[in-house]
Fold this sequence. Notes:
Elements: E1 13-14, H1 15-22, H2 26-34, E2 41-42, E3 48-50, H3 52-66, H4 71-101
Antiparallel strand pairs: 1-3, 2-3
Amino acid sequence: MTGDSSYKDKKVITIGTVCELTGLSERQIRYYEERQLIFPERSKGKNRKYSFNDIETLMKIANLIEDGVQTYEIRQEMKREKQDAERAAREEMRQGQINARFGIQNNTHRYKR
């Protein structure tokens, strides 16, 4: 598999299974969706589908909520993290273009988890 199309990104897990894996109720999960903290896909039958990455995100959210962090603060932090990741990806791409332009070989391999 390549880059972003990891099995962890595939939205195939039902909300019932997510509840079993996380210990969260359907109501809690739907609330996090309403607060724009999680973004499940919908099947043709309108059922929510989640990925393993979504489950990890839900666990992070639940832990932060338990620590007293407000959903607004969580959403802002998630936005910052996404922007930082996008910025790093753009910088890596720019560096790759510079290296290609000047024939610089980059022998260090970066593996994404």
